[in-house]
């Protein structure tokens, strides 16, 4: 009886922690949740349709999803009730590491595409040859040099074996799992923290992408570490602004999404931290911290660019020299907003700089002329981005003739994705009814912003990797909400 009372008390405390406490916070979180209902509803509808194409029987998908829900709810309840913090953390790290190490040992993924360009350059850099800095790839995408030198440092310290870089991927994913646990605990409570961390640990694309030398593993860790620092004390810690700026700055050196996460941080600070304090004396100090984040981020980028330019690696700063490229590609109806070989061949005829940018802008404007076609493209892209199967098997098993393995991986990922879309929809419905704290709303704000951005820029399902931790955190509250519903009805 005493244990049950403690459990019920903890559940009530978690519910109070998740729900908004001020009228302004409640109203804004409800508005965001209404948009979240549309997004998660879209995910659920189109991913369910896509998932059905990967199974023979029409009944397979609903039965598997129901079975997954039936298994997830009691497991989440057990996770929240039994085992201390240290026990859970050890179990989590083992659950993250074990399947990823097994996958890396069993599947010898070779670098391809951009990953091959960066790894080849890293091998040269580790040997003291920096001539790659002015080749076609790095002349176009100088911002990829940050990750390239991270790989070069690892090669210099531990040798040139691919296994070292892949094990570092596992290490960063383990760190991300811990950070997500902390974020979800801060946003929704202990049970949700554990549910989010568990879902991150077993999500198939996360596991099999560990054998791929993508910059996403390390950038996601630093971006979400910045978000945790931001929300752990609602940005009142003395050095929080410095840590947030450094984390986003370093994350941007790995993968150039820093401006997006900065915008999310500033929006959170403006709507959920500054707005309630606008009549208080404390708001100037908070505003100064926001400026400090921007300054630290800018200094990190400038310092890295200065070092690489002065070191003779590249004549270009670590910035995007083709600002229209992603938009031009994203508006290509022939590829449904995905990468285009024809576009690549076309623009490479022109020298980089003003002339190539002019050509890309002209093509971009031309593709915007047919408004009906643009509208149809936006809908088709959003359907593909948030409904199609993840491309992780393609990147993890390139040119490997293992169709049965790929089939099973895709089927498992599809059921997991539908399940999370369902839990996310439940979470949005509850938040739209009750409102949520700014900490919870931050992750929804980022997810919605990312979805909006990919309406107009290039899409690949691999790009979900960068923002999917937000969805994982949000869907954990859907699990908790359903647990509460069944508990009241005498179920699990």
Automatic annotation (TrEMBL):
Pfam families the UniProt entry points to: PMT_2
GO molecular function (one): pentosyltransferase activity
Domain spans labelled Glycosyltransferase RgtA/B/C/D-like: 151-296
GO CC annotation: plasma membrane
Keyword annotations of the record: Cell membrane, Glycosyltransferase, Membrane, Transferase, Transmembrane, Transmembrane helix
One GO BP: lipopolysaccharide biosynthetic process
Bilayer topology: Multi-pass membrane protein
Protein name: Glycosyltransferase family 39 protein
């Amino acid at each position: 009886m005493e244990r049950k009372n403690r459990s019920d008390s903890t559940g009530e405390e978690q519910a109070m922690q998740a729900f908004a406490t001020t009228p302004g916070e409640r109203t804004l979180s409800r508005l965001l949740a209404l948009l979240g209902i549309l997004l998660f509803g879209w995910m659920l509808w189109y991913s369910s349709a896509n998932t059905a194409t990967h199974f023979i029987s029409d009944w397979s998908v609903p039965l598997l999803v129901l079975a997954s829900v039936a298994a997830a709810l009691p497991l989440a309840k057990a996770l929240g009730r039994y085992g201390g913090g240290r026990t859970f953390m050890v179990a989590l790290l083992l659950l993250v590491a074990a399947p990823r190490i097994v996958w890396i040992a069993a599947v010898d993924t070779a670098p391809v595409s951009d990953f091959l360009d960066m790894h080849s350059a890293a091998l040269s850099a580790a040997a003291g040859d920096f001539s790659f800095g002015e080749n076609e790839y790095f002349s176009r995408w100088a911002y990829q040099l940050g990750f390239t030198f991270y790989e070069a440092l690892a090669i210099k310290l531990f040798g040139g074996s691919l296994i070292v870089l892949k094990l570092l991927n596992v290490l960063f994913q383990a760190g991300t799992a811990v950070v997500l646990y902390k974020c979800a605990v801060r946003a929704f409570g202990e049970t949700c923290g554990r549910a989010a961390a568990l879902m991150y640990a077993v999500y198939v694309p996360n596991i099999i992408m560990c054998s791929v030398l993508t910059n996403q593993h390390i950038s996601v860790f630093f971006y979400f570490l910045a978000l945790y620092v931001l929300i752990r004390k609602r940005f009142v810690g003395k050095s929080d602004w410095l840590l947030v700026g450094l984390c986003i700055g370093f994350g941007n050196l790995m993968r150039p999404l820093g401006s997006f996460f900065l915008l999310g941080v500033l929006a959170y600070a403006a709507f959920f931290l500054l707005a309630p304090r606008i009549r208080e004396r404390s708001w100037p100090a908070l505003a100064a911290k926001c400026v400090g984040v921007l300054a630290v981020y800018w200094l990190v980028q400038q310092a890295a660019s200065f070092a690489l330019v002065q070191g003779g690696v590249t004549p270009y700063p670590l910035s995007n020299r083709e600002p229209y490229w992603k938009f031009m590609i994203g508006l290509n109806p022939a590829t449904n907003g995905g990468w285009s070989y024809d576009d690549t061949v076309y623009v490479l005829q022109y020298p980089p700089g003003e002339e190539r940018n002019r050509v890309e802008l002209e093509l971009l404007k031309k593709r915007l002329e047919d408004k009906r076609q643009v509208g149809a493209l936006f809908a088709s892209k959003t359907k593909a981005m948030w409904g199609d199967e993840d491309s992780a098997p393609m990147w993890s098993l390139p040119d490997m003739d293992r169709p049965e393995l790929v089939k099973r991986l895709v089927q498992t990922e599809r059921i997991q994705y539908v399940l999370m879309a369902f839990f996310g929809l439940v979470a949005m419905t509850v938040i739209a009814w009750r409102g949520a704290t700014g900490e919870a709303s931050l992750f929804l704000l980022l997810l919605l912003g990312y979805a909006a951005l990919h309406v107009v820029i290039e899409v690949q399902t691999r790009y979900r990797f960068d923002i999917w931790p937000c969805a994982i955190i949000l869907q954990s509250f859907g699990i908790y909400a359903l647990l509460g519903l069944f508990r009241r009805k005498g179920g699990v």
